[in-house]
Amino acid sequence: LGYAEEKFLPVNQGFDSWFGLPYSNDMMPPWVQTRVPLWLYEGTKRIEHPVNQDTLTTRYTERAVKFLERDHDKPFFLYLAYNMPHMPVRTADRFRGRSRAGLYGDVIQTIDWSVGEVMKTLKRTGRDKNTLVIFTSDNGPNTGDNLGRNQESGGLRGKKAKLWEGGIRVPFMVSWPAVLEGGKLNHSIVSLTDLYATLARVVGHSLAPEEAQDSHDVFAYWRGTPEVPDTRPRVFFCHLGPPSLNDTLAIRQGSHKLI
Description:
- It contains five helices and ten strands; from the N terminus they run βββααβββαβααβββ.
- The chain has helices spanning 56-68, 102-124, 165-168, 194-202, 219-222; strands at 19-20, 40-42, 45-48, 133-136, 149-150, 156-157, 172-175, 236-239, 249-253, 256-258.
- It is an alpha+beta fold.
- A hairpin with a 2-residue loop joins strand 9 and strand 10 (256-258).
- 20% of the residues lie in helices and 13% in strands.
């Protein structure tokens, strides 16, 4: 997916519809020194500039709800990627000042409300039991201390752009009531790359030998299987660029990590 050419936009790469930004919401000064204007897209059309980021999260949610209210009997795939809480953090008037954690907390409450609206819509349309819902993040928060304890990361060392656990360990929650028993917790180490092989299994797709070689089927963990030694040792490799910086590479096996 990309934006530099129209053929790379989501609707020309397999998606039926798309509403959103083609990159993170900080693609403008002072965060990024660029003269390329930040546009909100509807399909292949640029529809808003400057973007009203106060209502961006709630508008995504409203679009998601409308999508879920259509075609109740058809299988669907919804990729709902909120730009917040990536900087700059903004939220709608009705959420501003409601949390006890400042604007950032208000933004998190907005996302919490948004996920609730999606889940309520699934229930209202009778699809909550047999819909697989995955909630996760791409990295740790961009707050706190690089070296000491970081309360915003749940007490983990480091933050976004660091290879300590506070930078790369993220929430990962799965709900599928018709198939998965709720209330399970698994401490095994997995990677977001494992979504490929795991979802391939869910939809009945057999991976070719050369396909997604860095992805592992972890569906057993979703089923609540207790932690057991893997049949083949897994090594997790992380890289943060550019290579000119120190501490850009890490490997982890079991409980040991080398940075």
